[in-house]
Each structure stands twice: as C-alpha cells, then as structure tokens.
UniProtKB/TrEMBL annotation:
This is Cobalamin-independent methionine synthase II family protein. Residues 177-384 form the Cobalamin-independent methionine synthase MetE C-terminal/archaeal domain. The lineage of its organism: Bacteria, Bacillati, Actinomycetota, Actinomycetes, Micrococcales. It comes from Arthrobacter vasquezii. Coiled coil: none annotated. Transmembrane segments: none annotated. InterPro entries: Met_Synth_C/arc, UROD/MetE-like_sf. Pfam families: Meth_synt_2.
Amino acid sequence: MTLDRIHTSHAGSLPRTPELIEANAARTFAEDGFTLERTPEFEGLLTAAVIDLVQRQKDLGITIPGDGEYGKAMSNAVDYGAWWTYSFQRTAGLELTDFNPILAEPVRSEPGAIKLTSFADRRDWTRFAAAYQDPESGIQIGKNATAFPSATGPISYTGQEALASDIANLKSGLGAAGIPTGFITALSPGSASRIGNDYYATEEEFIYAWADVLREEYKAIVEAGLIVQIDDPSIAENWDQINPEPSVEDYQKFTQIRAEALNYAIRGLPEEQVRLHICWGSWHGPHTTDIEFKDIVDLVLGINAGSYSFEAANARHEHEWALWQDTNLPAGKVLVPGVVSHATNVVEHPELVAQRIERFASLVGRENVIASTDCGLGGRIHPQIAAAKLESLGRGAQIATDKLFARSGTLL
C-alpha cells in the first residue's frame, strides 16, 4: 500500500442488495435450527454481488475495500447482529437452548466480581426504557437472521468452506477492480463468548476456547494475503452490560482477560495484516453510559494489531480525538478513526471529513491515519445514504490528501 495519500476504508458491514436479502430469507435451516443451508444458486449470487460491491467501493473513493460482510447472512434490511451471528454457522458444539443473551434474566455484579447481564438490562437501555421500547423511536435493532445458540459441548471450527468462499469472492472483486488488497471481518473471542455456556467450567476457559476456534479464520484470511479486521466491541461495549456500573479498575481487569485471549489467538500473525475494530455498540441509542476511551486506550494498544479502528465521528465520541495528544501511538501502528458516522442519516460534508482526518494526522502523522467509518453501515442506514457517506469519505480524504501531501512537496 503506497503512502502517497490518505487511504480510506470502512468498518465492515455494507448494505446488502435486495436480491441478497431475499435470497438469505429464502434459505432453509439445517436440523440444528440455526445453520443456514448453502446452495450453488446462492453462491453464484453472492459472488456476483461481492464483485459488484468492490467496484462500487472503488468508484466512491474507498482504497481498502471489504466484502461488505456479504457472506454473513442478513435476511432483513435492518439487522445489527450479522457481524456476530455468522459465527454460529461456523462452529460445532452449539445447540439451541432456552438461553437468549438478549432477553435473559438480569444479572447483578459486585465489586471484584463482574458478570455480564442481559442485553435488555444494559444501563443505557434501562435508563431510556421508554425510548428503547418505542417502535417509532428509531433505535430498534431489527431482526437477526438466526437464533442464538449456546455451547453444549467442546467447540471447534467448521467454517472452512464458507470462509474459503468469502476469501475467493473478495479476491475476485479485488482482481476485477485492480485493487491490491482488502479486508474481511472476523469475530473476537471476547465478543463470541457472550452466548450461553453449558459446557466450559469457567468464563476464561470459554473465551480461550473461542480463541482457538477463531484463530483458524484469522490465519486463513492473512495467509490469503488479505487484512483481517477483528471485530471486538466487547472491549468497550461490555461496560454498559455490567449492572450496576463497576469501577474502572474492575472493568479493566475484566477486559484484560479478553485482550490476552485475542493476543493468544493472533500470535505469530503479521501485525500489518491485523486490524482491530472496537466500538460502543452500533444501535442508534443515547449511549450515555459508554465508557470513556481514555479508560481503555491502553488495553486497546496492548492488543498486537497493526491498526486500530474506532468511533471518532459520532456525537458521543468525537471529542475523544484529544486523548491522542497525550497518548503515544507505538511505532509502526496505524489509527483507523471513523470520520463519518453510522448513527445518523445526515451525510457529513467532505470538508468536515477532511478536517477530522487532518486533526488525527497532526497528532500521529499522516502516514499513520486511514480514514474510515465509525461502525458498519449495513443493516443500520439506508443503502442510498450509506453510498453518499462513503462518497463523502472518499472526497474528504482527497481534500485532506491535497493539503497534507502538498505541504511537503509530495507529488501524487
């Protein structure tokens, strides 16, 4: 990747085509009740959709495209969970049980003994219960393509065929568009382990079991010459899922296990091909109980990725750019800040996008900034608006490039 410009990417999920949503909705489930069957017809549609998507990203000014997570099933236009639920399709040892992490009974934590409560018992969700329960509030999370299973036996990776399809589809799209590399997302151990567990003796044992499972995805993606983006909202998002609010120190200890498990899963992989994505949850709620980035930034930088993707454009977190005034970015590392948001239908002006890029470049160096989106756009905003945001991202990056590289006399 040449360093003669501000490169652009995004956080993974992009709106599916109506045809792909319809095809996913028409797929049948295997006997387990949550694994979606694949057919040659579906595979052909998926390949064509990814090839077209990569070209559309290029046309909008994205220089490091992804497959839009098209291989991760979404059977509804609004779906905030496809980045996670895909893993159920690729893991043995799971079964449908009575446990549902969204609607489970609340769990209370104590100092020194943190436990995750149910999603419905999140502190932001209970503080604004009327808004979250109002179907006209605009903060509903849609419908997932599959149900949530639990681990009832030893888990192991079974997604080789599906992952090979994802890799082949993206590489076909990159080749057709003449783009040297792109990225595929994969789940983190800490986020994967938030389903039910009826087999492993401890939470830590369960997290590390997921680390062994997901390492297979990470390795296959980087060995294909692609970038793996590891989605780990649990690093930041879990804070809101602990009730009552814990101390920052207790939360850091709780999260350290997840960071260490991820480092175990990516051990030996080339850091320049590993991107970590954290977020505070992509639903369009108030987010008044998000943890401050300054309280977890050391944990994030302690994960052995080459680049770090995070929310930096939405109204709850944009101010946190200032922490990089006092936080040293380790040598060779790259920031991938969101400079357009998934949480608003307002399309950011390219000049604002450029200002946000320049702000980070002034703090960590232009060569250490890749402009991106806060979180995935797919399943969260209308496809037409998502395309406009990517176009604004591309145009803003060009404005920033003209300013940042012209100053040093670099010719583009």
